[in-house]
Specification:
The chain has 8 helices and no strands. It has 166 residues and is mainly α. The protein folds into 2 domains: 97 residues, no CATH class; 61 residues, Arc Repressor Mutant, subunit A, CATH 1.10.10.
């Protein structure tokens, strides 16, 4: 038995753009999506147990990206709550908010942002990453029925939002 590891450089070259897009859909922001994807590869590089199968490595990367997006959502909620309390009425926008406006113009991303984080995760993993219901359920740690339900409601909410009903 040899101690072969997944070639991280090859994995990075093949999957980095997809991990950024996955994080971008889940987070709704390009800059934070790149941070999440880069952090996923750093975690893989520093993992104490070497990954020997490319398919498992890709699953691990997706798990890290999804979990990091969840963490980012929780952090954003805390920051938003704090900012609402501390905010003085001010009509000027920050440079960061202005820069993100370009990304917000995309109708689909805007509609995805309106979904709850859990529905967004399921819709993006099922339909953007083309993962099976079983694979999504395994990745998110929920039942297949939950994935089906969240996907159905998420797609309905997304369609209503895109039509302008929501």
């Amino acid at each position: 038995m040899t101690d072969e590891r997944v070639n991280l450089a090859d994995l990075y070259a093949a999957h980095y753009p997809a991990m950024v897009r996955l994080a971008g859909f889940l987070l709704g922001g390009a800059a934070s999506a790149e941070d999440v994807a880069q952090d996923a590869f750093v975690r893989m590089a520093t993992a104490t147990v070497p990954l020997r199968e490319p398919d498992r490595a890709l699953g691990y990367l997706r798990s890290v990206v999804v979990n990091a997006c969840r963490s980012s959502h929780r952090h954003r909620l805390v920051v938003d709550r704090y900012e609402r309390r501390a905010r003085v009425v001010n009509d000027t926008r920050s440079a960061e908010e202005s820069a993100l406006t370009a990304f917000d113009r995309d109708e689909l991303v805007t509609a995805l942002r309106q979904l709850s984080p859990r529905k967004r995760e399921v819709v993006v993993l099922r339909h953007y990453c083309d993962m099976s219901e079983v694979a999504v359920a395994d990745l998110l740690g929920v039942s297949v029925g939950t994935v089906k339900s969240l996907a159905s409601r998420g797609l309905a909410d997304l369609a209503a939002s895109m039509r302008g009903d929501a």
